[in-house]
Each structure stands twice: as C-alpha cells, then as structure tokens.
Automatic annotation (TrEMBL):
InterPro entries the UniProt entry points to: Nucleotide-diphossugar_trans (IPR029044)
Organism: Tichowtungia aerotolerans
Domain of life per record: Bacteria
Protein's recorded name: Glycosyl transferase family 8
Amino acid sequence: MRSKTIVTACDRNFAAGAFLMLSSLRRHGVNIPVHILERDLPDADRKLLEQVDGVTLFPASENAMLQHMVYEKYEAVRTAASDLIIWMDSDCIVTGDITPQIDATGAGLQIRMRPENEIAYLFRQRYCVDDQKGKMPRSVLEIWKKDIGERETERISTSCNAHCFVINRSWVGFLERWKNQMLKVIPQETSHIIVNERSPAYPFIDESVISSMLAFCEEAPAITEFQFDRDPAHSVIHFGGSPKPWQRWLQRNLVWFDEIMDNLDWAEQQGWTYPGRPWFLKRKYKTICRMDAWLFERKRLAVHRLRDTARKLLCR
C-alpha cells in the first residue's frame, strides 16, 4: 500500500474553510496525515487547525513571488515525503471516504480534465471561424506552444481543474517546473488573483499554465481519469466562486448545508471547538440562510445588470 499525504494552503481568509475540510475528512474516516502551508495565521486560527488529529502546519515563504496562496501548491507538496500526495484547495470538503479514489492513481497524475462542453463555454469568446468548439482555440494553443518551447503538436486539447489532484512522488519535479512556468508567463501585477479574463492564453492562471505543460512538455506525467466526482457518496466538493460557505451562503451551495452542519456538529463531539461559530453555520438558521442567499443573489444580479447598462451607454 502506497503512503499518502493530503496537502493544502491557507491564510487567515481560508482558515475556516480549512477547518471545514478537515472536519469532513476526519468524520468520513479519511485519516491520512494533512500538511497545511500557512501564511501569517493568527494564533486563534493556528489553534483551530492544530486541534484536529494528524494535522501539521508549515510556514510559507515570506519571499513568495506569486502572492495568492493558491499558487503555493508546489511548496505545499514538497512538505510531504509520501508515495502519493493529494492537493486539495482549502475551500473543499469530502462527502465520504475518498481513500479508494486516491489509490486509483497511476504512476503519474490524477487530475480533472474539462469536458468539451465546459471548454466550449469557457473559451466561447476566443474561438475563430476555423476552431472546433469543445477543443482549445488554436490561438491559445499557439501561445502555449511558444511559451513551453518543446513539442510541436499538443498532447491534449483541453484544460484541467487544479482544485484537487493526486501526484505520484516521482513527478513532484513537474510541479516545480509548474511554479517556474507561472513565474515566467504570469505578470506580477496579476499574481494576487486567480482568474484573469483579459489574458489571451492563461485566463485561469495556474490551471491554464499546468494545462499548457501537459499539452506541450516533452516529459509530462500520464494522466489518470479523475475519480473524485464519480460517486456522490465519495466525492470532493469544491466551493468555487465567492462568497464561501463560511462567509455567506450561495443558493448553489445550500445543497451542502446539512452536510457541513453534520461535519461541524461531529467536530464539536470530538472536542474540536470553533470559536465564534457564525449564525449562518448553525442548523437552526437554515431557513434564514435560504432567504438570505436568495436576496443576496438577486441584489448582486441587479448590480451586474446596472453596470452592464452603464457600460453600454458610456461606449456609445
């Protein structure tokens, strides 16, 4: 049986999310050691995370060139000495024991590759007449090929999600090159964000960069089909976008309300305290949370429409 370590990274904005992730892992019997790369966590947040069994915190470098913690994946992975290293964004939870899904990883990398309908939607504004919808636009692939400077033809014509992946230890060096490639192609002024829609080839920044490497590097890990979204009872759930559940509920996330309450209640039974647990993370306020999410999203939609109308008027 191959040894395993789960790694993640967080700052004070994601400490509560990391605690939700840890609670879900332990409640569902995932007793794999967890390494958390942290930057400037207050003592209260450190205590929140360190009270969970099998958790070790590691300080992030103060001299990191890329400012967002999501770009610290390589630094987090290199804290582990196990055969398999599992990266999970600190805004993820699990719905069951994911150990068998981890063990399904081959000798390379298990990561989610986007299906054609996602690619067609995400890159809809970048397609030219001769491009095939559902494949990466040729203009994007040409930039990737030039920036990598190795293969002439792409190995893949899609992009990946990097919120959760499993890497075999023999390929950790590939992640170091990922970090170096980000430093090469990501402007410093955008290194504090995770999405840059103005970038012609790297709109999803770190995900776009590793996708370019999987496509055009001569040496790249073999990809195992992603296992963590096949079985709803043994899945990794990623709360992309904002706000996060520990900040405020979105309607699409409310399907996981009871799951998160179960995790928090179970954590309290283990003696793991969550000081200042907000009202929207308490089961008795579920109906109010639903109303608040509905009102919040209606207000946000109205603001977006108002901005779009104003922009169109100004551009006349």
